[in-house]
Automatic annotation (TrEMBL):
InterPro entries: ABC-Tungstate_binding (IPR052738), PBP_domain (IPR024370). It comes from the Eukaryota. Pfam families: PBP_like_2. This is PBP domain-containing protein. Transmembrane segments: none annotated. Residues 14-238 form the PBP domain.
């Protein structure tokens, strides 16, 4: 599925094409390892760092911020609060208690898991494990429905069966008004705005309020057929008037789908696509040369002023 984009040192000029391979997060790492893909967008930061250590990827680039939602039947057999205040861990604990208590009920509480090693499945498993439950283990919990499918199909199945499930924000926004979703509602939304997160979260810690966050990172293969073109594409993706403007303006049914990269928001001092941010982009390019690089926000606390001594394309954190 080709699409057009463009990149240059100061901004878009010459177009280039991208061929997309439909995979999930785990398969994306495999595609890099087997050199089937030059660049992958993944949703698991720790696995991304392992890929770097294994030599199958350059340091990850934080492109945008996605999130997951907890959705379920409007009949709400688990009687989950609908005000959004309880943490996702508290809601999962209530789901577990209700699922066990209603096992013999004509309207039992059930949970659908994609069970496919996707970012969705990894996050859901981590939440269950955090509250001390592994319903997929032996003895198997009958209320835990394993359904290996892509997001749209999994959400349709949850609606048909009257089950709770995690779903990515984009899938829910694009489908929630369809007739098949009339029996489903959202009980907890993940946040996509970086500025709304607690200070500790910005240091990299996962707190209750951000457990549904889904950061998207780009991994460029060191064996890419055209490594320099890949770097230019990623630079365009982080440009406030390039990829970040596309991300900011991308909406589904009138609702913004993703949050901007916190690297851009922190390094360039905000979300605006004009004015000082544009100047900061030019300063970064000037100080760091054609392949400009700098450390990420946890290492750079100097607003929009690049640190030229850290302009190393092979540094642990980089902006190109």
């Amino acid at each position: 599925m080709p699409c057009s984009a463009s990149a240059s040192e100061a901004g878009p000029q010459a177009p280039f094409r991208i061929t997309w391979l439909a995979t999930d997060t785990s398969l994306s790492f495999n595609a890099l390892a087997t050199k089937s893909a030059d660049l992958a967008i993944t949703y698991h930061p720790y696995a991304a760092q392992i890929a770097v250590q294994q030599g199958i990827a350059l340091p990850p680039i934080y492109l945008w911020r996605d999130a997951f939602n907890l959705v379920g039947p409007t009949s709400n057999p688990a009687q989950l609060p609908t005000d959004g205040h309880p943490s996702i861990f508290e809601l999962f604990a209530l789901l577990f208690q209700s699922a066990v208590a209603s096992a013999d009920s004509p309207a039992p509480t059930r949970f659908l898991s994609r069970y496919d090693k996707s970012a969705n499945n990894i996050l859901e498993s981590r939440i269950w494990a955090t509250i001390g439950q592994t319903p997929w283990s032996e003895p198997y919990s009958p209320w835990y429905h394993k359904f290996n499918a892509f997001p749209k199909e999994a959400l349709f199945e949850a609606a048909r069966k009257g089950e709770y499930t995690l779903v990515d924000r984009g899938t829910w926004i694009s489908m929630k008004d369809q007739p098949e979703m009339s029996s489903m509602t959202c009980f907890k939304e993940g946040a996509i705005s970086w500025h709304e997160q607690p200070t500790d979260m910005k240091q990299g810690h996962v707190l209750n309020g951000d457990a549904l966050g889904n950061p998207a990172h780009a991994l460029l293969s060191p064996h890419a057929q055209d490594r320099e073109l890949g770097k230019l594409f990623l630079k365009w993706m982080l440009w406030t008037r390039g990829g970040q403007e596309v991300i900011r303006n991308f909406k589904v049914n009138g609702t913004p789908l993703h949050g901007l990269s916190p690297w851009v928001q922190t390094f360039f001092g905000g979300q605006s696509s004009t004015g000082s941010n544009e100047s900061s982009t030019q300063n970064l390019a000037h100080n760091c040369g054609q392949n400009a690089a700098a450390t990420g926000p946890e290492h750079n606390r100097h607003g929009d002023q690049p640190i030229s001594a850290q302009c190393n394309i092979d540094s642990k954190y980089w902006i190109i």
